Amino acid sequence: MTAANPTACLLVIGNEVLSGRTRDLNINFLAIRLGEIGIPLREVRIIPDVRETIIATLNEVRPKFDHVFTTGGIGPTHDDITSECVAGAFGLPWEPHPEAWARLERHYKPGDFNPARQRMATMPRGATLIENAISIAPGFTVENVHVLAGVPRIMQAMFESLAPTLQGGPPIASRAVHADGVMEGRIAEGLAAIQARWPDLDIGSYPYYRMGGGGVALVAKGSDAEAVEAAAHDITVLLRALGSHPVQGEPPV
User: Fold this and answer.
1) pTM score, two decimals?
2) Which of 9, 20, 135, 177 could be 43's S-S partner, Cβ–Cβ 3.0 to 4.6 Å?
3) What are the DSSP E strand ranges found in 50-183?
4) What is the phi/psi pair of residue 10, to 5°?
């Protein structure tokens, strides 16, 4: 990637993900969408609902990346502690957010805006709201930390409301070439030479296995679309030189 591209880190917060109880669907969505707006996702960490861990991890990554996204832990139950941990990481009071409080108070019937639901309107002082078109309760941003819901549909809605405000770089282009019957050991040397020829690109090799045999998919990614196309051409030439029949795109499932 070029220096023009800001970078992102994602913290997936939740014991249920670490235990295997919940399959995370947010990483793939955010990686793709962030790439489309020119903010490559450079690191993902999955951490538990433990106050000390969340605060320490936030304070480690937020100086290293232009954007830090969190998913999970902003609901109404006792283990939803992400919001108060963000406040702790920034040394800010955790208090009712006037606008979020007013929205939720209007949304619920009289008497239903109970202490548990009030937690969803309690945020670090000065937080900027992230709209939630699905279930009202908003996410929020503090400096370069963007706090999103863990439920995929709600997280996606929050991200789409946030995306226009994010300053990205050139979109990340990607080209894949695959070939059946090719093993990584045969292409390693040639692929290393292609990577050396295009040092600003990410070039990866991904073997696949399926009924009837396997092969390898080779992917070039970067913010220079012309360089990505040229690298994909070099990959195709390499595969043909090995006697295979390369096909543009990912292999069929």
Assistant:
1) 0.87
2) 9
3) 67-71, 94-96, 122-124, 128-130, 139-142, 145-148, 173-180
4) -120, 130
